[in-house]
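Minutes, project check-in
Item: structure for the 310-residue chain
Input as provided by the requester:
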Amino acid sequence: MLRFVFASVGCALTWAVSTVIFARVLRGAPGGSPAALNLVKCVLAFPPLVALGLAQGDGWPTTAGHGGALFVSAALGLAVSDTGYFVALSRLGVARGVLFIPLVPVVTAALAAVFLGDPLGATEGAGMALVLGGLVLVLVRGQTDDVAGTDAHDVAPAAVKGAARARLVGVLAGLGSALAQGVSNTLMKKAVVAGAASHVAALRIGFGSVALAVVVALSGGPHTVLPFLRRGVFGPVFVASCLGTFLGMWLGTYGAKGLPIGIATTLAATTPVWALVLARFTGERVTLRAAAGAVVAVAGVVVLALSTLR
């Protein structure tokens, strides 16, 4: 069972690295939209996932009778949730945007307990509480850093109003992202039990790409994709897509295959803790409160891991 735990934690780590890269790409690609970046990352990740399935002997991806659930799961989890997440990153920055991820296991666990009958005992609840409590401490760090050194008297009223509007859009996008991902995870659980993890991950990426292509065509058109294909931008997008979307998607799907979906997504939701560690290497100040939050969250991961051995 521990291999499923490590897979879910690995998903969080790869997504943390890709989050930092995607956030920088969004700032450095004028004219590109979050939906277009989402489409590019999905298109880049689809072939490696298919190749992985073939290399493992799983054959070509098949829906195993769950095509409808997989399509809806992909549309919600990739077209809606990931795009909303990118909007939150672009409006709020990494420190705040990444912290909507911990809401996903709460939504997922509640839905899975009602619709899938997944067990959620005292040990699992304690582990989830520790993980989410640690992430709240990280959130406090993100908020204080956001306002540090800012004097409201030096900012024009129009700029203040515009910033407030941007924050509101980012918060709503983040909340919508968490809700959509929770529903997506619940739908995915039945499909992932029936089929190979590589098949489920590849099909979700493929279906998500179709849904995103429609969104991009109706919203901004192909020209919103071009900024992410430029020299100097495409390289980081490719690396982040391979890490977060290809490897992270497969690891997350594999973890969900062997764990109750609420536990799997809680482990995957430790992304902000790993992002905090990465921030230390990029020159950001890491406070004692943030470090304490990381320790508490890791303790929660240990409790959840031990619960799988019962």
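Outcome recorded: Residues 2-307 form one domain.
No further action items on this chain.
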